[in-house]
Amino acid sequence: MVPLGGDRLLRAASAPKTAEPFTDLGYAPVPVDIGEFEKLEGCVTRLSVRLRDLYA
C-alpha cells in the first residue's frame, strides 16, 4: 500500500483481501490495475516515488 494523503491508500486491484484490515481501520484503499507490472513482479510501492515536503 502507498499512502495518497488523508485516509486514501493505493493498492493493487488484484489483492482485495489486503485492503480489508485497512478498511476496518477507517482507511479508503484505492484499487489500481497494475496487472502488466505484476507479470514482471512489480508492485505499487515499486511504481511510486516518495517526495519530501518541499515547503517545510
Describe what you observe in this structure.
The protein is α+β, with helices and mostly antiparallel strands. The chain has a domain at 2-38. It has two helices and three strands, in the order E-E-H-E-H. The protein has helices at 16-24, 35-38; strands at 2-5, 8-12, 28-32. A three-stranded mixed beta sheet has the order 1-2-3, with helices on one face. It is flat. The model has no long low-confidence stretch (mean pLDDT 83).
In short:
The protein is an alpha+beta fold. It contains two helices and three strands.
- Average pLDDT reading: 83
Return the structural class.
alpha+beta
Strand content: 25-35%
| Widest beta sheet: strand line-up | 1-2-3
* Count of individual helical segments: 2
The main sheet comes to: 3 strands, mixed
Q: Write down how many β-strands occur, each being a DSSP E stretch of 2 or more residues.
A: 3
Overall spatial form: flat
Ranges with pLDDT <50 over ≥5 residues?
A: none
- Report the span from N to C terminus: 25 Å
Instruction: Tell me the radius of gyration.
Output: 12 Å
- State the helicity in percent bands: 10-25%
Order of helices and strands: EEHEH
